[in-house]
Amino acid sequence: DWIMKDHIDEAVARIREQVGDEEVILGLSGGVDSSVAAALIHRAIGDQLTCVFVDHGLLRLNEGQMVMDMFAGKLHAKVVHVDASDQFLGHLKGVSDPEQKRKIIGREFVEVFKAEAAKLTASGASKNGAKWLAQGTIYPDVIESGGAKSKKAVVIKSHHNVGGLPEQLGLKLLEPLRDLFKDEVRELGVALGLPHDMVYRHPFPGPGLGVRILGEVKKEYADLLRAADAIFIEELRSTVEPHSGKTWYDLTSQTFTVFLPVKSVGVMGDGRTYDYVVALRAVQTSDFMTADWAELPYSLLKKVSSRIINEVRGINRVTYDVSSKPPATIEWE
Ligand code: XMP
Description:
Pathway: Purine metabolism; GMP biosynthesis; GMP from XMP (L-Gln route): step 1/1. With 333 residues, this protein is α/β, with parallel strands linked by helices.
């Protein structure tokens, strides 16, 4: 629509004016905010933008490929794809404490990103070296970091954020989504040509599958979880609730699969199995501070369970998480 078009023109003009002919780096995560920021900045300054996409090996199935197809393939943006999965998994080896896992993933993320950014800021890699770091900060982030959140006495989970990075890298900060609410960011994303499914995605935590594999993270576990989770999401996206006409994916706020590193006995054909368990999680919430478990239809749960057990060799039991927040949290770690 026209209002959105004006909004884009205005934002583009502002970015061009701010940046001039200097170069910009942006950390692309595949999430909504960094994706929309990347698309907007790319619209404004094209090849003066370089996106850095750090793959920590804890992404969902085909996620890395999807990000590359969209940004490098369709938008023709410059994207550096860093496959750091071995490095992340190496540092996580033997670590089972949730907070320690979060800290390691956050720290490594900053390390890898800084190393890539350093290459791009040095002259030679680009014309003059990048001078700007772009971030997909949105209005609620601005409020949160100034107010209530920092005063909270008890840290339930440490969130990894990239605060302080621009200073460390000696870069100026570019935050073109700073004044926008989530809904507006999504509308902007669609208007910029990003696919609906990408822009209306459920949130995905920075530490990724690292906090959805309970205890020690192993590649074997991550591969099983990716396969099971893809089935769950596929069924949620394709099952329509008749009264609203919406899919169960759109009727829920966050949905995912959790890998439990315990084995249970099952039977398949004439044989006994002794394999891993997954839990399905689906919640409805408006603010993610409190959340209800979603009353998914039994028929949907039945289909997902049967598909996971038949299609993912190594998982022989599927459970459904019926815990609300509080006292449970949305993620299991
Ligand atoms: P919990 O599990 O605390 O999660 O109920 C609330 C929301 O926050 C997301 N979450 C994170 N997001 N980095 C993020 O960007 C993190 O470290 C992180 N931990 C949890 C979670 O997915 C849910 O939407």
